[in-house]
């Protein structure tokens, strides 16, 4: 009997976790007139919403935004992993003067709130002419991604 209640609990938690995704999907499949229907399944199924989101003729550039996100995230990840691995190895395995200071600076920098740098970075990147470029997103992301 305990095993049955265990499975009932697992199914309930699974339903509870997946219900928002199901609701998001059926809302996306409804047409605009039936967006706010509360029926558990769509009555008028359409793919027009997906076309509207992906169509570039309506002024949308969703796929371009996804491409930009991929360039920024992959560049940030690759550079941060490369720098982080070598830095971590050097700090962990090598003995050098000032090792404690370097470790303390890294720890202090990771405790600094990133949002406090938004305005100064915007002003700096504006002065450098970097607004609207990839490097204006990649460089701060690297510094935030490194421990």
UniProtKB/TrEMBL annotation:
InterPro entries on file: BP-dep_ABC_trans_perm, MetI-like, MetI-like_sf
Gene3D superfamilies per record: MetI-like (1.10.3720.10)
Keywords, alphabetical: Cell membrane, Membrane, Transmembrane, Transmembrane helix, Transport
GO biological process entries: transmembrane transport
GO cellular component: plasma membrane
UniProt entry tagged with the keyword Nucleus: no
ABC transmembrane type-1 domain span: 66-147
Localisation per UniProt entry: Cell membrane
Record field: transmembrane: 7-26, 70-92, 104-125
PANTHER family listed in its UniProt record: INNER MEMBRANE ABC TRANSPORTER PERMEASE PROTEIN YCJP, MALTOSE TRANSPORT SYSTEM PERMEASE-RELATED
The protein's name: Carbohydrate ABC transporter permease
Lineage: Bacteria, Bacillati, Actinomycetota, Actinomycetes, Mycobacteriales
